[in-house]
Structures are given as structure tokens and as C-alpha cells.
Amino acid sequence: MSKVRLRPSVKQHDRYKSNPLNKAPVEKKAKSVFPEFPTLEGYLQITKKASGKKAKWKRRFFCLKHNFLLSAVTPDAQKLERVISLEGATIDILQLDGAENSLSVRTHRKTYLLQAETLQERERWVKHLQTATKLQITDLYEISDQLGVSATQNTTVVGGVCKTTGRKVAIKIVDKRTCDHRLLANEVKILKKLEHPHVVQLYDIFETPDQLYLIMERLLGGELFEQLTKRGDGFHYSEGKVCVIVRQIAHGVRYMHKNGICHRDLKPENILCTNDSVDCVKVADFGISKCLKGHEEFMQTMCGTISYTAPEVIKGQTYGKEVDYWSIGVIMYILLCGYPPFYGESDYQIAQSIVKSDVDMPDDEWAHVSEEGKEVVRRLLSRDPKKRMTLDELIEHTWTKGPSLQSADLKHVNSRLKDTVNVRKKAREEKNTTGWLEANGQIQMKELAKTANEIQGRRRHVSYGGHPNVCDEENELDVCEPASAPHSFPERDSKRT
After folding, report:
1. Is the model more confident about 475 or about 48?
2. Which segments of 278-409 does DSSP mark as H helices, in order?
3. Of 33, 29, 105, which Cα lies nearest the Cα of 63?
4. Backbone φ and ψ of 215, nearest 5°
5. Distance from C-alpha of 428 to C-alpha of 206, rounded to nearest angstrom
6. What gap in Å lies between CA 248 and CA 394, rounded to an integer?
7. Above 60 in pLDDT, residue 475?
8. Tens digit of pLDDT for each residue in 394-451?
9. What is the pLDDT of residues 450-472, one digit of tens each?
């Protein structure tokens, strides 16, 4: 018998609250191939009957979620058999082979013939399926203020409230007609796999032929840098506070690594605060993250944001998850002193600095940082990936018990941090920096050098880059597939031989 599962209450989602920093988060079981809290689910018979032939029925478990109908052999199956988009579909009542409890689902691609166990069950399915064919995002969520727009203008983030639970959410609206479908499918696949106190949570998905809606956890604090700077000139933060922030980032990224995912674009813009404090931060934006398959350990695709990119990536070498260690080191450096460790008046000069320059920690700007803290930064920013501090070492380091040196005067740190953020915002608005490395296997150093002669930069420049718009395909994106589906980044990412 089919059964209707109740929608979640707000309390059911309290499990996403952060764990104490000194305790490793409890590892959760793998998610079901079916989405949580379906509209309707249960067993139905399905057939591919051709005209003039007797139907051969197969019993399958079906799940209706918003405007998608999914099926598999059993509720515990590890792979979906089909995903049917109900947008604009036609639902009809049929009588096949003398059975009065049959129905058809006719989409623009195909017609599916289904049969319920009883007439009552058929009526229940028909009612919900017909509703699903006309469902809109506004039927599920109240849309509020705009929270942001991507650099490529094909993604908008708005606030929203679930009409059923009253939960506040952030809704990422992606224009499927102008986005890179590979990057989008990759991000959705990763979001569906991750559930951790320090990783942004995906709650739901809604899709139309032209738009994809990712309903995500609402983080009211915004970006890490913005949260730190908006408190004004009187706000001070200590090395101990940086320690807390970095450990949370490390917990989230280590969880990703254990699940075979390398982020590849860690930066302050992708670290979000849950509220108006930095007590809890979460890792976000997995558009260019890489899902490593099986025993795959190494990657070759050159991508990321230049200021936070490891030297082995810039030099075109095969690299591993250690590139995330490097990015965390850059973030930590900026949080401690207010400016990046590698800088220049252009992306070209920044890339050159990353490859050739040593990490500098001037006494007048680093006097408030303990020797333990400086050592952590140096080890994370080691040019040799094998010598780089691992996330396990970072989390267990004695420095995490509290820095030995406390400083009272940190006004210069706040001032420098504001300068860094202002430069980043200006670069984003004027689009005078490439910032984002193209995922085409080679860094365009000549183009960066040419750009350097055309723009006016400034010392300690932080590059910002958005994802390029490289796809105008009209293909329908199937985002309801299981996490094990074969979406991945270019085939150049492979195991080193």
C-alpha cells in the first residue's frame, strides 16, 4: 500500500546545529537514493505495453517529490531506475487488460503506464500527480529579499520561508539555459552527499525546464569577511578566535575529504557564518569541487581562485587534496594580519608570487601572533604538498588549545582587513580581474600578463573570480539522480600512474 509521509517539523532540522569544536562530528549514514519527506510514495506496477500486446507488469517502488516522480526496484535500492519530470505532463485514467485501477503519465518525451493495487490508491496517485504537473516554487516557499547575484548573472540567491514548516531558507536560482551544466550537476551531486555541522546543507530541490532551485540552509551572517568588518573600527579579534574559525573550516573540509571530495576553491567568500557572529562557520560553494572515484587520488584540472590556489596547480602539476590545506593556510594568514600572503598588482603577479615568493610575517604586523600560530601558517603554506600540515594535524595541534600569546591592540588588523575586502569588492564590480582559473588544463599566463598591463591594481590585492558562462545547451538537467551517478569533472582528473 502506498503511504503519505508527513512533512518535517522545524524541530526535525535542529540536527544541523554545530557540535562542540573539540569533539569530532558524528559520521552519518549514507543518504537514501530517494529524497526525504516525499509528497507520496508506495508500490505501483509499470509496463511498456505495445499496441496489440498483453502488458507485462513490473512492480516498482515510486516516490513523488514536488514535480518529479522517481522509481527503483525497492525502497532500499542503491540506484534509481527512472526520474520523470512532471512539468507540463498529462495524467489520464485508463483501463488496461480489464483492470480499472490503471493510469498514464504522458510527458513531452514518453508515456508511462502505471497500475495501482486498488481504485482508492489510483485516485490518490492521480490527485497528487495532477497537482505536481502545475506546481510552482511559490506554492512551496514564500520568496523574500534578494541575497546575491553571481558574477555571470545566471545565478540569483533569494531568501525564502517554507510554507509548511516556517523554516527560513536560502534559495539559489540557476538559469539552466545559460549555465555550465557540468558544473551545475557536479555541485548538486556533492550537495546531496554532504551533511555536516560545518558544511552548508542542501534541504530540497525544485526544477523547471528553464530554472533549477536549490533550497539551502539560510546563513544569516553572510560571508566571513563581511561579518568581521561590518562591526566597525572598535571590533577586535584575537588569535584564539582565528583558531576557532580555522578549526571549524578544517572539520568541514576533512569531512569532505573522507567522502572523496576535494573542494578546490576555498576562500573567505565561500566561508559563511550562521548568524551575526563568527562562533560557527560553514563551507559553501562546491561548483568546481571534485568527486574522486574509487581509488582516485590525484587531479590535473587547473581551477580555483588565483590568490588561494596552491603552487602545484599554477605550475600545471598533478595535485591532490593538499591544495585545500594550502587554501586554508591563505585564509588563516589573512584572518591573522588582514592581508593575503601573496599579492601583486595583477593576477599574473599574484601567480608569480605564489610560485616564487616566501611567506613574510613582518614583526610590526604579526607581533600579536604566537610562534605556534606562525608555525601552523608556515606549514600549511609549504610549497611541497608532502610537507604541508594535514587537517588531522591542524585539528589536533597544541595551538588549538589556545595560543600562548594574547594581544590587546589589534586595530591595525581590522583596518587592513577592511582594505582587503574593499579591493576584492572593487575587483568584482569592475570585473578587472580574471581571478578564476579556466578548467581547461592550462593557465593562461600570457593572457594574465597582458591583462596586468591594462588594469590598475594595488598591493596586497585579493582576486575574485566567478564561474565562466561556457554552455548554452538546451539539455534537461536530471538533478534527482543518486549520488553515485557518473557526473564528474573532465576526464583529465585521474589516478596518477
Report:
1. 48
2. 311-314, 322-337, 347-356, 363-366, 371-380, 391-396
3. 33
4. -90, 115
5. 29
6. 11
7. no
8. 998 867 666 654 544 445 554 455 566 566 555 545 544 434 454 333 455 555 555 5
9. 554 554 333 232 222 222 222 22
Q: Among 331, 337, 327, which residue's Cα sits nearest to residue 361? A: 337
394 close to 250: Cβ distance less than 8 angstroms: yes
* Percent of the residues in the chain that have a pLDDT greater than 90, as a whole number: 40
Q: Does the CA dihedral 281-282-284-288 come out positive or negative?
A: positive
pLDDT at 320 over 80: yes
- Cell numbers 557536479 correspond to what residue? 186
User: CA-to-CA distance for 355 and 310, rounded, in angstroms?
Assistant: 8
Q: Are 61 and 74 in contact (CB under 8 A)?
A: yes
- DSSP letter assigned to residue 26: P
Task: Specify the CATH class of 33-135 in words.
Answer: mainly beta
Residue by residue, what is the 3-state secondary structure of 265-282? CCCHHHEEEEECEEEEEE
Give the Cα separation of 325 and 443 in Å (integer).
21
Looking at domain 136-497, which of 3.40.50.300, 1.10.287.1120, 1.10.510.10, 3.30.360.10 is its CATH number?
1.10.510.10
pLDDT given at position 402 = 61
C-alpha cell at 415: 583596518
**What is the DSSP-derived secondary structure letter of residue 109?**
S
- Contact (Cβ atoms closer than 8 angstroms) between residue 1 and residue 121: yes
* 70, three cell numbers: 522517481
* Cα–Cα distance measured from residue 399 to residue 376, given in angstroms and rounded to the nearest whole number: 8
Residue 265 falls in the annotated catalytic set: yes
Question: How many helices and strands, by DSSP H and E, does the chain display?
Answer: 13, 19
The DSSP call for residue 385 is G
Q: Residue 113: pLDDT above 90?
A: yes
Q: How far apart are CA 458 and CA 456, in angstroms?
A: 7
8 A C-beta contact, residue 264 and residue 288? yes
Helices 239-258 and 371-380 sit at what angle, rounded to 10 degrees?
30
Q: Where are the domains of the chain?
A: 33-135, 136-497
Active-site residue identified among 180, 265, 285, 324: 265
205 near 173, Cβ under 8 Å?
Answer: no
- In 3D, which of 270, 269, 348 has the Cα closest to residue 314? 348
Per-residue cell: 191: 550537495
* pLDDT of 343: 84
Residue 392 grid cell: 588531522
Summarize pLDDT for 237-280 with one digit per residue, the tens.
678 888 889 999 999 999 999 999 999 999 988 999 988 777 89
To the nearest 10°, the Cα dihedral for 421, 424, 426, 432? 170
Residues 6+ apart with CB under 8 A from 103: 91, 92, 93, 94, 113, 114, 115, 116, 122, 125, 126, 129
Q: Does the fold of domain 136-497 match that of domain 33-135?
A: no
Judge contact between 436 and 303, C-beta under 8 A: yes
What does the pLDDT average to over 143-149? 86
